[in-house]
Amino acid sequence: MGEQLVLQEKLRKAIDQELSERVSVHRKNIARLQSAQEGVRTLAAPVGNRPLVLLAEGDSWFDYPLVGNGPLLGDTDVIAHLRNIGAMPPTVLNLAVAGSTAVGEMSLTRQSALIAQLQDKSNWFHGKPDAILFSAGGNDIAGESFCIFLDFNDGKAAGLNTTRFSRALGMVEACYLNLFAIRDRVAPGVPVFGHCYDFPIPNGKHPLCVGPWLKPSLDYCNWSVGKGTAIVHEALTEFRTMLKGLEANPKNKFHLVDTQGTLDAEEWANELHPTPKGF
């Protein structure tokens, strides 16, 4: 137990150091962009004359430092690709941490850090980001807890226990609503963009350092990969429906990037993450 606590503390400090370095690099980028613009026009110029400046909070879809299932060779996630899109790529302050749950992202510690960065004027051009990117919910369902939402296959069970699963979705939804409330208080008017993940194949494939996240629970509850794929599809369809409901309320200022049905089988690196091309 003592060794485990020491390792957890080392991991926490490493994450804190990584996030601190990201913030430092971001502020230097903003200072450089401001200096460049001041030589041409005032900072009241329209957004089209400068890069979008975004804040990202999320999980491994925004913070995936592997190449497929390979060694640490640099981030290959959604944010890494956004930073290379177009003639004027966005500048992103990325606070995402791989493995995060929605509940963890909206915990007291992470929420306080998010608010601190939103309120720090040196991070933004006009006091707040142009948009907030949010990736959350997958880890609240997958992993060791996935078995909670499965019926045991006795020949009669349906697979996904929709009653128990709806309770988990309710907690994830609460986290999104909490983020919107933070935005309204600290950065009013800033839109939030989220995504709904794609449909993975629960085949047990995973990196050496973590996982698998789906197949062990399916095996435990006596479901085949084929039926398990249908169960995961149903669960993520329900997740998308919940997010579409949030998008439908204009007060949320929430935009859902519909990522379901995007990836081919060969664009999945493992049970939860795409290949670099997939990202």
Automatic annotation (TrEMBL):
Presence of the UniProt keyword Hydrolase in the record: yes
InterPro entries noted in UniProt: GDSL, SGNH_hydro_sf
Gene3D superfamilies: SGNH hydrolase (3.40.50.1110)
UniProt superkingdom: Bacteria
Signal peptide (from-to): none
Lineage, uppermost ranks: Bacteria, Pseudomonadati, Pseudomonadota, Alphaproteobacteria, Hyphomicrobiales
Name under which the protein is recorded: SGNH/GDSL hydrolase family protein
Molecular function via GO: hydrolase activity
Key words, A-Z: Hydrolase
